[in-house]
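Journal club prep — side note

Before the paper discussion, L.F. wants everyone to see what a predicted structure for a comparable chain looks like in token form. Sequence:
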Amino acid sequence: RGLEKIFIVSTIVLSSMAMLGASNEAAVIAMADKFYEEEQLDHSNKLLFELIEKNPDSVDAYWMIARNFYEMGNGVPIEKDKAKKLQMYIQCEKWAKKGYDRNPGLADNSLFIAIGLGMQGQTNGVAKTILTSRTLAKQIETAFLNAIEAKEYHYRTDKINTIASAHLALGIFYRKIPDLALMQILTGTKGDVSKSIHHLTIGREMFPN
């Protein structure tokens, strides 16, 4: 009975430690998100980098870092520093991919892979990108589709969530790229008005306001 008592006490202690760790991580995530909302993106990333050092399997840290880099890129005027703007979007893709490698079933990771890639293409110029990086359009399409088909997503507000964002973005993607057979041959995908309307409609129906 003495050994049984020791086992029970040890189990309770370990469970309490796990709960405390989870609670601390949740607090860090909440604070990083608060910094994001306040546009203190460097502070948000600092917390998230430290969290990953302690727990590389943190579910939300990677896509949240990607989101911060995306916003950082948006904040750099292209006419002032195109290289820096591009680098922010590269980092967005990089950190989202790190998250995807650990948790491919989380839609948020796939969404920011697509966003990071898409913004790199937009920064470099769509025509130039199609000519120099023929796989990029297909990579973007695939990442958006992965996000839509994922079983789990974490970003949600009363106005939008990850899945709706992916549908809306994919709808815009199919509208913007050329609807040409040559585009399909060169890149593996092409514009499609019916697909664009389909995804835009789904996204808007999820959040009609």
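L.F.'s comment for the group: The longest helix spans residues 2-37. Keep this in mind when we get to the figures.
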